[in-house]
């Protein structure tokens, strides 16, 4: 019960900070909105008929998964900010499990990421993305899984960087290739073997494919859009989450105390 | 009585450093003691405190806090200690009360609820009580970034006392506080000590704050250069002085030389007593005095002499 309260306090702190910073909300919503509106729209008009599926829906699910995953991963860098402004001392001197600290941080960034995509999902209807009530319901657990995966991935990355500037460079280096390897805006049904290998170890691939699996479930386009069944994607993500969390937390705690 | 803080042969060398920040430090602190860890900048005080509070791992050596090893039983150690950090460690994006609430939940004192008014009565009362003690009052509900440096320090003090720790580590606790707030804080800490057998471990540059300490340990270049009760350290290393003056200064100067007393001459004469009884010295001065004052040994004198000796 006590550790649960710790997790809630850490998560509440992140959400409070987000609510007080409307600039972050605007920036987070505007970027994917324009990407779907511009990119999805142009792709639908030019490639949609040839591809044989709804390109706006395809782009929307790609950006939805990417935003949830990447926003949570990037949010973990605030642990580094805490280290620089000495708030990390307050956290790390507390008599609580280090896993609770890390999980609380991931939950907080998860709530922030979900808050960021709510207006984005609402706007999807305007863009005629095929979202059924069942898909909307299923998107809730998918969002949680995607964010948790992003958090664990961000935690692991955090151990390789020393400041926010390095984090931004590292995140560009790590995320940009995944946009293509995970099929953010273009299908990846066919890839050369070396790109296929890289794609298979890219967590974002499973996040986006899981999102598409839920949104396109029951549609005629399902087989052309989705690579793996949602259960397979969820299982791979669960395995990756455990590995990244254990390794990331151990490295993070070691780095915090063993200077 | 077993020591509540046991430090044995503590060594800390930071990665990429060629020398030890803490170099073989050992000391004990008994329960309920007011212990002061003193030393110039870079002496290793904050590094030592960081190891004692589990935020830093030692390179070698053994440290036990309240009977628990800092490496193997870090959680148990953390439950027994409170710390007021040298550098501000507040979340600037939250209000003062939100920072305190975060701390209270982290220490398992209260369940987490997202608003102050939803928190239990006990929490709200304690925040109000502590805010009054340090003179923060309703300012505690302001965003931290809108508080002055002194107010932020007060807020950290409220937070550090929130969970009523057995051992309170105070790393330069009153820097940035005005005189009245400083006095209020020490008064409150003294009351806490009496009520709860609180052990205090203080590092400070304000040596007058360490005058009340039961024991002091002076560090320099990561090593212990003096350790003992405050009176012991003062009597060993600090001097008592006699301040005198006379209408016939020439005669007084001559008499001081006859008595083989070491003195300096400025606006008046400052005579080193070197263990002599001041009353006997005054009795031996024949000239009528226009000024007479004794100056007791201070911890600051002892501290400066020790450091001067180390640097020599």
> Shape of chain B, please?
globular
Strand content of chain A: under 5%
Give the proportion of residues in helices of chain B.
25-40%
**Count the helices of chain B. How many?**
11
Extended strand count of chain A: 0
Class derived from helix and strand content of chain B: alpha/beta
Task: Please summarize the sheet with the most strands of chain A.
Answer: none
What overall form of chain A do the CA principal axes indicate? globular
How much is the radius of gyration of chain B in Å?
A: 24 Å
Uncertain runs of chain B with pLDDT below 50, 5 residues or more? none
* Secondary structure tally, helices of chain A: 12
Mean pLDDT of chain A comes to: 85
Q: What composes the largest sheet of chain B?
A: 6 strands, mixed
Order of H and E elements of chain A: HHHHHHHHHHHH
Q: Low-confidence parts of chain A lasting 5 or more residues at pLDDT below 50?
A: none
* Distance separating the two termini of chain A: 32 Å
Count the strands of chain B?
14
Quickly describe the structure.
With 259 residues, chain A is mostly helical.
Summarize this structure as a short list of keywords or feature phrases.
heterodimer; A: 259 residues; mainly alpha; 12 helices; B: 312 residues; alpha/beta; globular
Layout of helices and strands:
The complex is a heterodimer of chains A (259) and B (312).
Chain A: H1 2-19, H2 22-51, H3 55-75, H4 78-84, H5 87-92, H6 98-126, H7 133-158, H8 164-181, H9 193-200, H10 203-215, H11 222-225, H12 230-257
Chain B: E1 5-12, E2 22-29, E3 34-38, H1 45-52, E4 60-65, E5 68-69, H2 74-80, E6 81-84, H3 96-106, H4 121-133, H5 149-161, E7 167-171, H6 179-196, E8 199-203, H7 207-210, E9 215-220, E10 223-229, H8 230-237, E11 241-246, H9 249-258, E12 263-265, E13 269-272, H10 278-284, E14 289-295, H11 299-311
Parallel strand pairs in B: 3-8, 3-9, 6-7, 7-8
Antiparallel strand pairs in B: 1-2, 1-4, 4-5, 9-10, 11-13, 11-14, 12-13
Helix pairs in contact in B: 3-5, 8-11
């Amino acid at each position: 019960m006590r550790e649960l309260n710790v997790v809630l306090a850490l998560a509440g702190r992140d959400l409070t900070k987000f609510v007080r910073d409307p600039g972050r909300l605007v920036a987070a919503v505007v970027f994917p909105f324009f990407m779907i509106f511009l990119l999805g729209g142009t792709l639908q008009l030019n490639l949609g008929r040839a591809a044989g599926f709804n390109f706006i829906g395809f782009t929307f699910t790609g950006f939805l998964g990417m935003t949830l995953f990447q926003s949570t991963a990037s949010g973990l860098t605030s642990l580094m900010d805490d280290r620089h402004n000495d708030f990390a001392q307050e956290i790390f001197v507390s008599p609580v499990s280090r896993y609770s600290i890390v999980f609380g941080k991931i939950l907080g960034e998860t709530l922030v990421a979900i808050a960021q995509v709510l207006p984005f999902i609402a706007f999807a209807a305007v863009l005629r993305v095929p979202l059924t009530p069942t898909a909307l319901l299923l998107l809730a657990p998918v969002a949680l899984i995607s964010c948790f995966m992003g958090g664990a991935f961000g935690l692991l990355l955090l151990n390789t960087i020393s400041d926010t500037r390095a984090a931004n460079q590292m995140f560009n280096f790590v995320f940009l290739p995944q946009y293509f390897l995970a099929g953010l805006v273009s299908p990846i049904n066919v890839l050369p073997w070396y790109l296929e290998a890289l794609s298979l170890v890219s967590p974002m691939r499973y996040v986006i494919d899981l999102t598409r699996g839920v949104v396109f479930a029951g549609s005629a386009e399902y087989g052309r859009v989705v690579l793996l069944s949602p259960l397979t994607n969820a299982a791979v993500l669960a395995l990756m989450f455990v590995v990244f969390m254990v390794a990331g937390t151990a490295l993070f705690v070691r780095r915090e105390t063993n200077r | 009585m077993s020591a509540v803080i046991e430090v044995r042969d503590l060594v800390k060398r930071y990665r990429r450093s060629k020398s030890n920040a803490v170099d073989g430090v050992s000391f004990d602190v008994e329960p309920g003691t007011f212990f002061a860890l003193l030393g110039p900048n870079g002496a290793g005080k904050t590094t030592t405190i960081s190891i004692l509070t589990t935020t830093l791992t030692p390179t070698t050596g053994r440290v036990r806090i309240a009977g628990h090893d800092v490496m193997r039983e870090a959680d148990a150690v953390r439950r027994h200690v409170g710390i007021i950090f040298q550098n501000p460690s507040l979340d600037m994006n939250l209000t003062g009360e939100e920072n305190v609430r975060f701390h209270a939940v982290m220490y398992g004192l209260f369940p987490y609820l997202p608003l102050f008014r939803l928190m239990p009565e006990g929490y709200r009362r304690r925040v109000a009580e502590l805010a009054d003690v340090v003179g923060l009052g309703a300012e505690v509900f302001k965003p931290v970034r809108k508080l002055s440096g002194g107010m932020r320090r007060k807020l950290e003090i409220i937070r550090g006392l929130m969970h009523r720790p057995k051992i309170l580590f105070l790393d330069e606790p009153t820097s940035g506080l005005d005189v009245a707030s400083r006095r209020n804080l020490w008064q409150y800490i003294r009351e806490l000590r009496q009520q709860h057998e609180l052990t205090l471990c203080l590092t400070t540059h304000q040596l007058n704050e360490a005058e009340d300490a039961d024991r002091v340990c002076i560090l320099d270049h990561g090593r212990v250069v003096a350790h003992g009760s405050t009176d012991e350290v003062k009597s060993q290393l600090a001097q008592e002085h006699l301040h005198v003056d006379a209408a016939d200064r020439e005669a007084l100067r001559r008499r001081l030389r006859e008595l083989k007393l070491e003195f300096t001459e400025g606006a008046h004469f400052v005579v080193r007593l070197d263990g002599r009884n001041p009353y006997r010295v005054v009795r031996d001065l024949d000239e009528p005095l226009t000024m007479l004052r004794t100056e007791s040994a201070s911890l600051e004198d002892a501290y400066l002499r020790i450091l001067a000796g180390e640097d020599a």
